[in-house]
Amino acid sequence: MLNVIKEQKGTVLAVRLSGAIEESTNLDKLLGPPAAEMNIHCKEVSRINSVGVKIWIKYFQEAKTKGTKLKFLECSTAIVEQINLISNFTAGGAVESIFVPFSCTKCRSELVGLFKTEDLKKLNFQLPALKCSKCGAPAAFDDIPEEYFAFLMR
Amino acid sequence: MTKTLLLISARPDDEVFATQVASVAGLTLRKANTPEDGARIISEESPGVIFADASSEQEYSRLEAAIQEAVGLFSEKIDANAIHFITCENLEKVPYLIQSPLFGHFILRNYGDPAEAGEHYGRLVGATLGDRAFGLERMLKAGAKIQNVKLQSTVQKQSAVEAIKNYLLAAKFQSRMASVIANAVDEILMNAMFDAPVDELGRPLFASVSRSTAMRLEGQHAVEINVGFDGRYVGLSAIDHFGSLDKAKLLSHISKVYTEEEYKVKTSVAGAGIGLATVFRSGGSFFFASENRARTEVTVFFRRSESFREFKDQFRFISTQFYF
Q1: Over residues B166-187, mean pLDDT
Q2: SS3 of residue B192 by DSSP
Q3: What does the buried/exposed string (b/e) look like for B38-52 if buried means 16 or more CB atoms within 10 Å of the residue's CB?
Q4: Which of residues 30-89 of B touch A (CB under 8 A)?
Q5: Is A151 left (phi over 0), alpha (psi -120 to 50) or beta?
Q6: What is the CATH number of the domain that holds B171?
Q7: Whose CA is closest to A3, among A12, A13, A16?
Q8: Pairing mode of beta strands B233-240, B2-8
């Protein structure tokens, strides 16, 4: 089930999504008519199934057609996977920042770090060394770089 | 058919893999270095299982021509259920296999450890040698406990998916892995509930019915899921009682990628048509067993890995068994 927190600031509608996006998700109802500008915060989106993807693309493509300026922020790993798999997942909107998965080399804890996509490109996807927040050991990027950052390399 | 596994490949890693498969499945390994040798052995010895290197279209065409020459593509000695193609390329890069009349199984040659991969795949091959390759217990290590859940209604799907995710977390899968597997379960259950049901003429009953519709799952519409973990691999099977799986449609859906072309939202159908492809690209392997008008079992396998990187890059395959 998806929960949404909305905040209107001038012409910009900021929405914070949390939970799973699936067949029962009604974005028309949850988000309402698209605003002139929309900032979509996806930090807490844990999962999206195929019907959820269809609902998502339908909503944001219609928003784009109506002239909405779309910006996706704090994209969770689940959202990044879809951005990589489906070329029009963001309906032409800008992906501002994404969570990058790390794994502790010692205690194997799962960690994520928030990166601006612009910075990732500047770094040429060479990620800075991170330390595990639980045990302090080094944490390593835990995915396949060519796949996780594929949408930024296109 | 004899209890022989014929390997048509000159690659040492394929030989290690096939040796282990043969050992686990109780078959004798027979090796051919060229498609022509392989076709001759098929003609003379009728091997029960065939593994063939089909890494390039040229190699595949050579094999197809040799088989056509030796026995004919539609000979009794050729059964797609027993033919396993091995390639280095992912499914979308080998359209010649998807379109092949010989297609039964696709093995992506990212073995990691070929012997370990062969042990896992060997159990599946062993299951296909029987009358019907149904039953998850045969495809996991002996002793793996299988849990069965019968769903009473379509609205129970999300709770079942969440319960499986919690089961996986308890089995020490990383949470990201558990989410990917939960999504796979979501997709195969949704297909069993809404795509499998057909009428007497084989026409889909719920093609345009919203996937959030509440429906009772009774009688022929009953859907169940089996879950088992053998310490290394988790297997999850969705079972329906229509036996309506269409091989060409399945392969077309599963091999489709939307990284180059755009995904077009079709409002005439309620499904999305991208679920299985997404699961395969996330590291999952599939085994589809379908008996026409009787039963379909769709099983996904995932290996528990140390890291998500390994998980995503794990050995994988798409296997099909169709019974008419």
Answers
A1: 95
A2: helix
A3: bbbbbbeebbbbbbb
A4: none
A5: alpha
A6: 3.30.565.10
A7: A16
A8: unpaired
- B295's CB contacts (< 8 A; 6+ apart) are B134, B239, B240, B241, B242, B243
pTM to 2 decimal places: 0.94
Average of per-residue pLDDT across B174-196: 96
Among B100, B128, B156, the domain boundary falls at B128
Match 């069993």 to its residue by tokens. B192
| Residue B51 to residue B210: CA distance in whole angstroms | 41
Residue A135 sits in a domain whose CATH number is: 3.30.750.24
> Tokens 């093995």 correspond to what residue?
B107
Q: Give the list of residues 6+ apart from residue B82 with CB closer than 8 angstroms, or none.
A: B1, B47, B48, B49, B50, B104, B128
Taking 90 as the threshold, does the pLDDT of residue B156 lie above it? yes
B169 contact A CB<8A = no
Q: Are strands A37-48 and A12-21 parallel, antiparallel or unpaired?
A: parallel
Answer left, alpha or beta for residue B291, where phi above 0 means left and psi between -120 and 50 means alpha.
beta
| Domain extent for B280 | 136-323
> Which residue in chain B is spatially nearest to A62 when comparing CA positions?
B265
Last residue of a domain, one of B66, B101, B128: B128
pLDDT exceeds cutoff 80 at B1:
no
Q: Nearest-CA residue of chain A relative to B175?
A: A110
Q: Mutate which of B259, B267, B313 to disrupt the A interface (most A C-beta within 10 Å)?
A: B259
